[in-house]
Design brief:
- It is a single chain.
- By secondary structure, the chain is mainly alpha-helical.
- It contains five helices and two strands, in the order αααββαα.
- The protein has helices spanning 8-21, 34-41, 45-57, 75-102, 106-119; strands at residues 61-64, 68-71.
- Strands 1-2 form a two-stranded antiparallel ribbon.
- Helix 2 crosses helix 3.
- The longest helix is centred in the C-terminal third of the chain and has 28 residues, at 75-102.
- The chain is elongated.
């Protein structure tokens, strides 16, 4: 795990979220157990469980008694919606604020984005 990326339990939760968003962990499939995550990342199982339990609290995972944790129906859409909102807050709003300061219109900004995309 990355010491600079925040608490380890949050990194575990982020890893599971990323797998759900990219489709490698589909809805209604079993998530890795806290013991599997602990062994893989060489962390305490309680830390891994804390990350999983955070996802349960968020409605991304649910528990099946005696079986394990599973990805909730609608989890991917829920995560995409939250991440899009965070993307707007973190990137789009500051971009628009700076563009306004520089006198760049929305049309000009869209042109810059199109030019950048075309150059890739």
């Amino acid at each position: 795990m990355n010491e600079d990326a925040g608490p380890i339990f949050r990194q575990v939760a982020d890893q599971i979220e990323n797998a759900i968003v990219d489709g490698s962990l589909a809805e209604e499939t079993q998530a890795p157990s806290s013991n599997e995550l602990a062994a893989f990342h060489r962390i305490n199982p309680a830390t891994a469980a804390k990350g999983l339990n955070q996802l349960v609290a968020d409605g991304v995972l649910y528990k099946r008694r005696g079986v394990g944790m599973f990805v909730a129906t609608g989890a991917r859409e829920q995560l995409l919606k939250r991440r899009r909102s965070e993307f707007a807050d973190q990137y789009v709003r500051p971009l628009m604020t700076e563009a306004e300061k520089l006198g760049i219109s929305v049309r000009e900004l869209a042109g810059m984005i199109n030019d950048w995309e075309g150059a890739r």
